[in-house]
Design brief:
alpha/beta, D-Maltodextrin-Binding Protein, domain 2, 2 domains, 3-stranded parallel beta sheet, 40% helix
Length: 247
């Protein structure tokens, strides 16, 4: 009886090891958080319900190269940052700027893209010509982003925070606010889509996007960095730029 029980236990262990070896190169499925409201980087395709975009294609390529099994989790921005600090998710890709205060709470991959904050307003608006003309103006941002940080730094600006950036653009187009400050690729996408909008001047900041990984997951970070570095050398950013950012 004891011999049979021992064999049964051995069999269970062996099956468990075999199953683990069949998923993600032995690492199991990893949960990757994203705030899918930043078209064209990450957003929900209304026809399929799938999360798609520049960042998603990039991480899919990383996952294939690093033999990772990925499950994307669509979460609000604040919950994403909190989840990464607490280790709720294994990684996050969501147009996340690498910042010193974030580096204290989570790790980041090597940068994969440079962006900057830019002002968007209505074409009919002739008052706003740059950040120096935003005093007394209502400026929409996504709360907790670098756009929020920049708007808060302008003296006299009335900063209006939204849970996601589409809400800010809706408010702009319905004359509830005077301008929006957000990442320039996102702003250019809205300007291309809606002929009532325009961007003002050049990018106001220089920021680098990275993939966030919780503290303590250095092995996963190394796998991501190795795959990302190879893909960058092979020109994946140029390919994705042509597919998602250039029209």
């Amino acid at each position: 009886m004891k011999h049979l029980l021992w064999l049964l236990l051995v069999g269970i262990v062996v099956v468990g090891l075999l199953l683990a070896g069949c998923t993600g190169g032995g690492t199991g499925k990893i949960r990757v958080a994203t705030d899918a409201t930043w078209k064209p980087f990450e957003y929900v395709d209304t026809e399929t319900g799938d999360i798609v975009g520049f960042d998603i294609d990039l991480f899919d390529a990383i996952a294939e190269r690093a033999d990772l099994d990925v499950e994307y989790v669509n979460v609000d921005w604040d919950a994403l940052l909190a989840g990464m600090a607490e280790g709720t998710y294994d990684a996050a890709i969501s147009s996340i700027t690498i910042k010193p205060d974030r580096l204290e709470k989570m790790n980041f991959s090597i940068p994969y893209m440079v962006a900057g904050q830019i002002i968007t307003t209505l074409k009919s608006n002739t008052d706003i010509t740059g950040p120096e003309t935003l005093a007394g103006k209502r400026v929409g941002v996504q709360t907790g982003t670098t756009g929020d940080d920049y708007a808060q730094s302008i003296n006299g600006t009335i900063v209006v925070g939204y849970d996601d950036i589409p809400l800010a653009f809706v408010a702009l187009m319905t004359n509830q606010i005077d301008a929006v400050i957000c990442d320039d690729p996102v702003a250019y996408g809205y300007v291309e889509t809606y002929d009532t909008l325009k961007t003002v001047g050049e990018a106001l900041t220089h920021e680098e996007y990275g993939i966030a990984v919780p503290k303590g997951k250095e092995e996963l970070l190394e796998k991501i960095n190795t795959a990302l570095e190879e893909l960058l050398e092979e020109g994946i950013i140029e390919e994705l730029t042509q597919e998602w950012l250039v029209h």
